[in-house]
Structures are given as C-alpha cells and as structure tokens.
Task: structure prediction
Amino acid sequence: MEQFQIHEWIPLHLGRLNLSFTNSAFWMLVAVACATLLMLNMGRARELVPGRWQALAESLYDFVAGMVRDNVGDGGKPYFPFIFSLFLFVMFANLLGMVPLAFASTSHIVVTFALALFIFVGVTVIGFAHHGLHFLSFFVPQGVPAWLMPIMVPIEVVSYFVRPVSLSVRLFANVLAGHVILKLFAGFIISLGALFSLLGVLPLAAVVVFTGFEIFIALLQAYVFTILTCLYLNDALNMAH
Amino acid sequence: MRDEKPPTLADLDERLRKAREAHAPRAPTTAERQNSLGYRIIADLLAGIIVGLGAGWALDSWLDTKPRFTLVLLGLGFAGGVWNAVKAIKQLDAAARKPERRPE
Amino acid sequence: MDPAIGKYIGAGLAAIALAGAGVGIGNIFGNFLNGAFRNPAVADQLFGRAMLGFALAEATGLFGLLVSILLLFVL
Result:
C-alpha cells in the first residue's frame, strides 16, 4: 500500500494550509505536459497524408469530436475543448500510473472527486443558464401519474446527486483495485519463486497479462468518464427526460 | 559640408506612407478572432474562480473561520464563472447564427 | 468479539458484491454478441455501447470491493 503514499517534494505550509508540491501533483503535471506536447507539436504538422504522430493526434481529436457530436448534438460544440482536455488528462494520468516507479494520481479519491465535483457543478450551472428555472422540470419524469410524483421526484433528485459520487468512485476504484492486485501478484512471484523453484513463473505470467489488462482498463475508464460527462451535459442542454 | 541631397518632399511623403501602413491596425484574421473568443471564455471562468477564492479568503481572514467560507465561496465563484461563460457562449452562438437567418 | 475480527469478516462479506459484477458483465457481453451476430454491420457502434455498459456494470461491483479495501486498510 505504500505505492499510494503521498510524498511532499517541496513543502509549502501557509498557516494551516498544506500547499506542498507532492509526487501526485508532479505526475499530474507530467500528464498535462504529455497532453499538451502531443496536441501542440504533433498536431501542428499539416501534411495531407499524415505521419504517425499527426495521425494519432488527429484520430484522438476525431474520436472525441464524434463522441460529443453523437451524444450532445450541435449545442455541445462550445464545450468540446473541455471534454477533449478532460479525456486527454484522465487518459494520460491513468496511463502514466502504469509506468513502473511512477505514481497513479487518479488512484486517490480526492483527485477524481475534485474532477467529478467540478463537472457536476458546471453541468448543473449550464443547465440553469440555458433553461432558467425550467431546468427543475428535469426531475419530473414525463408520463408519470400525479399520485406517484412524491415518490419519483425524490428518487430522481437523489439519483442526480449520486452522479458525481459514482463518476469519481468508478475511476478511483478501478485504478486502485488494479494497482493493488498488481502489487499482490508481484509479491507472490517473490514468495513462490524463492530458492530456485520454477513456480514463480506462474504469478509472473499473471502479472504480465494483468498489466496488459490494466492498460486497457486505463484507456476504457478515460473513455467512460468522458462519455458519461457528455451524457450529463446532454441531459443539461437538451432536457430529453 | 553636405555630401548628399536633402530629401525631397516626395521622398518624405513616401517614407511617411510606408511607416503609417506598417503601424496601422489591421483587421484580425479568422484564426486570431477565434483565438480571442476562446480566451474570452477562459477569462470568464478564471475570473469567477479567482474572485470566489479571493472573496472567500478575505471573509475568512475577517471572521477567522478558516476553510469554510473559502471553500463555499470558491464553489459559488466557480458556478458564477461557468454562468458567465455560458452566457457569453450563448451570445456568441446567436451572433454567429444571425447572418443565416437574414432573408436575402 | 474483537473489532479487528469484525473488520476482516466484513471485508470478506463485502467482496461478495463482485459476483453481481460478474453476472452483469456476462449479461452485457452476451447481449452484445447476440446483437453483433444478428447485425454485423453496426457491430462497431454496438461495441462502443458495450464498453460503456461494461464499465458501468463493473463500477457497481467495484463499489463493493472499495468497501472491502476500506475496511482492510483504512479503518
């Protein structure tokens, strides 16, 4: 469990506030730097037949643009830069966590909950700014008889407020569980493989396979985080409920 | 001791015209215009966050209740920033859509 | 009973939630295969939605695993 320990690299305490530069902050900065470098430098080439990096940048852009177009519709175009940055940040933060000796910044609930909370507040404000107080009719589902309303509306409200929690815990639990299991199997290699026994190969194979699976999960969780944000944004912009 | 002719009025006029052209304000290109629109929306968001943070901090230092008002007003400031940004987006959307609707 | 024993028992019981995750994921991919065999043309589009469904079903199972890990290492 000490792989999830936060180390303060540059301590900075203002009174009771702890604003130190930690290893988590460093790896989040590296994720942002990777995303920036990828899109600025590799996306700058404008050849008609793209080279490898330009093709990667273009395909990522196309992928997220298609996601926003399909799930939010035309009114979601102003929010595309945010969704794209979100996707790139979560993807790189997850992938960098898989690098040996690096730190998975999304394995802390505070990081994912901050992301999800700001998304939730932002999407709610967007809903109110677009529809005014009519946005509150989102909690009243259509075609429900009036006597069922006092039960349905609180259920809808609670399920709306559960959204940031589920969004953040999904990402956090996936990354945390993956890293804990990897550490566990790696420990088995040592204990089974000690003293020239060949049994240590089995947990080694398991670690290799599971690392591949974790990389897939890192990409998938970034995709799911982004597409759920698009769906929540769609709920706020076009209240189709 | 003058080695060269003094500049004629026509020469001076030419130099003046060239200098004015170099410093005249040009119309912004499409890319520059879109860049500035993007920065305007970012400025709205950041202004909301900074004002909320600053107001929360000031209120906390005055009332000595350290993190509460900072966090609450940070959240409210963020919400206000998003509100302003969305209003700006809607205004830009309407302005961009107007030429299509004008009957020709 | 020693509270530490209760923690370990609770951690073991909370991990049972992963059975629901397994059932849900199997359900989702079974239906995906069904749909992909009937209509191979839209299989790619279907795969995107299947991945979304997989992540959502896994999430509920992982909430249970999270309680288990919380009991073991945090509380």
